[in-house]
Automatic annotation (TrEMBL):
Swiss-Prot/TrEMBL keywords: Membrane, Transmembrane, Transmembrane helix
Name of the protein in its database record: Anti-sigma factor
Transmembrane segments: 57-79
Organism: Cupriavidus basilensis
Source species, domain of life: Bacteria
C-alpha cells in the first residue's frame, strides 16, 4: 500500500505542473547564437511557386486571377511576421555573445569624455557618445564589435539591471523610418539620425527601450 500511495502522489505531483519551469526568453537566442550559420534554403513550398504553377488555370478568367492574386498576397501579409533582416540577426547574436562574455565592455566608464576618445584609432569614424544618466539610462562604457562586414562602436547603457547595447555606425543608402522590433525575446529599435545608423537592443521591456530611444533622439536633435 505504501508503494501504491507513493506512486499516486508522484503521479499527481507530475501532473499539477509545479515542477515545470519555463525557460527564459533569452535561452533560445543564446542557443541559436552558438550554432554555426547555415545558408538559407529555398522552402519546398512557397506561395509564389503555387501562383506560378496555377497561372494557366487563371488565364481564362481575368477577374478570377486578380481575386486569387489578392488572396495570395493577403496570405503572405498575414503569415509573415516583420523581420529585422540579416543585419538585425547579426546584432542579436552580437548582443547575446556580450551577455555570455565575462568582459562585455572594453572600456568601463560612466564618463562620455573617457569613452568617446577610447574609440580613436580603433574605428574610421567618431561615434557620438551621449550621457543619459539624468534620464535614467547611465552610460556603462563601450566596446568594438564586428557586424555588417565592418567594425562598429557599441555603447553600453543601463536601465536598472538591464544592459542596453547601442550600435552606432555611418549610415549608408536611403534613410529608413524609425522601426521597433521584438526578436528572440529582445526589444530592438533602429533609426538613422545625423548621418549615423543606430540599433538599440535590450532584454528590458519595450516601453523602457522606447523611452531610451526618445531621450537619445531628443538629445541629438538639440
Amino acid at each position: 500500500m505504501d508503494n501504491d500511495k507513493a506512486a499516486r502522489s508522484l503521479h499527481s505531483l507530475l501532473r499539477d505542473g509545479s515542477l515545470y519551469h519555463r525557460a527564459p526568453p533569452h535561452l533560445r537566442a543564446r542557443v541559436l547564437a552558438g550554432l554555426p550559420r547555415q545558408p538559407r534554403r529555398q522552402p519546398w513550398f512557397a506561395w509564389g511557386n503555387l501562383a506560378f504553377h496555377l497561372a494557366p488555370a487563371w488565364a481564362g478568367g481575368a477577374l478570377a486571377g486578380v481575386a486569387a492574386s489578392a488572396l495570395v498576397f493577403g496570405a503572405l501579409v498575414l503569415v509573415q511576421p516583420p523581420r529585422t533582416g540579416m543585419l538585425g540577426d547579426e546584432i542579436v547574436a552580437s548582443h547575446v555573445r556580450s551577455l555570455m562574455s565575462q568582459h562585455p565592455v572594453d572600456v568601463v566608464s560612466t564618463d562620455r569624455h573617457t569613452v568617446k576618445p577610447w574609440f580613436n584609432g580603433r574605428l574610421d569614424y567618431a561615434p557620438p557618445v551621449i550621457d543619459l544618466a539624468a534620464q535614467g539610462f547611465p552610460l556603462a562604457g563601450g566596446r568594438v564589435d564586428y557586424v555588417g562586414h565592418r567594425a562598429v562602436a557599441v555603447l553600453v547603457y543601463r536601465y536598472q539591471r538591464h544592459p542596453i547595447d547601442l550600435y552606432v555606425f555611418p549610415a549608408q543608402g536611403r534613410v529608413p523610418a524609425h522601426a521597433a522590433y521584438s526578436a528572440e525575446g529582445y526589444a530592438m529599435a533602429r533609426w538613422q539620425q545625423n548621418g549615423m545608423s543606430f540599433w538599440a537592443i535590450t532584454d528590458a521591456e519595450p516601453e523602457h527601450l522606447n523611452t531610451f530611444v526618445q531621450a537619445l533622439r531628443t538629445w541629438q536633435g538639440n
